[in-house]
Amino acid sequence: MSVPQRDDQVRTPIFNAMPAAVLILAIAMAGVAAITAFAPEAGRWIIASCLVIAGPAGQPLPAQPLGHIAPLVLHVFIHFGLFHLAMNLAILIGAGRAVGLALGRGLKGMVGFFVFFFACSIAGAGLEVLLPHDAIVRMGGASTGVSGLIAAAGWVRGGFRGMLGLALPWIGFNIVIALTGMVLPIPISWAGHIGGTVAGALLFPLVLAVFGEAGRPRFSA
After folding, report:
1. Is 159 left (phi over 0), alpha (psi -120 to 50) or beta?
2. pTM
């Protein structure tokens, strides 16, 4: 399967015509980072409310101000340092622009982008929670959602083969992290990345069909 590419998708500079949903998410993430840096009291409450917490089966989890369900969505706004934030913003802007333009610039496309992004985020965080843990772990960062955008950008740029070309290397990289972590623990949520990527690969054609603008290019055989 392949998808036609429009000239403006190929030639337009990456920072031009940025979809509104991408800008809103990027500004929100940067804003939360600024609050946690310059308003520590408010920052501590935000972090406690947004981090995903998982632990051994049967062990009570630490209480959170908004409960343990809301963080499945809100964790995307918490980052651990500027490098972590910058890395996720770079993928959000790069892959998110392609996905946002494919869905369209209107309100319907923006809603579709948010539905897709947070569905991938929930899938990634959910997989992290479901995995067995021998200690309490805390997870934050937009990498669950942007992992889904990586797979979606592959759909946009090259159909099914394009999706595999981006998704499989990213999944393989995270499998290597998982195997390495069995010997040398690495503070990276490989499960969150894989869960988000798989969700993105499966959900994007459906989201495009439901939320994409009529008359825009669709996947073709």
Report:
1. left
2. 0.89
Joined tokens for residue 191: 């499960």
Q: For residue 106, give both structure tokens.
A: 């209107």
C-alpha closest to that of 127 among 66, 183, 89, 174: 174
Distant-in-sequence contacts of 29-37, Cβ < 8 A, 24+ apart: 29/76, 29/77, 29/79, 29/85, 29/88, 29/89, 29/92, 29/142, 30/85, 30/89, 32/77, 32/78, 32/79, 33/79, 33/82, 33/85, 36/78
Ordered by start, the domain boundaries in the chain are: 19-211
Token pair for 102: 């494919």
pLDDT at 4 over 60: no
Residue listed under structure tokens 């309490």: 136
- Cα torsion 97, 74, 112, 23 to 10°: value is -30
**What digits encode the pLDDT tens for the residues 30-65?**
999 999 999 999 999 999 999 999 999 889 999 999
What is the chain's alpha carbon radius of gyration, rounded to the nearest angstrom?
A: 18
Question: Tell me: domain 19-211, CATH 1.20.1540.10, correct?
Answer: yes
Percent of the chain past pLDDT 90, that is, above it, reads 82
24, 152, 209 from 113: Cα distances, Å: 11, 11, 12
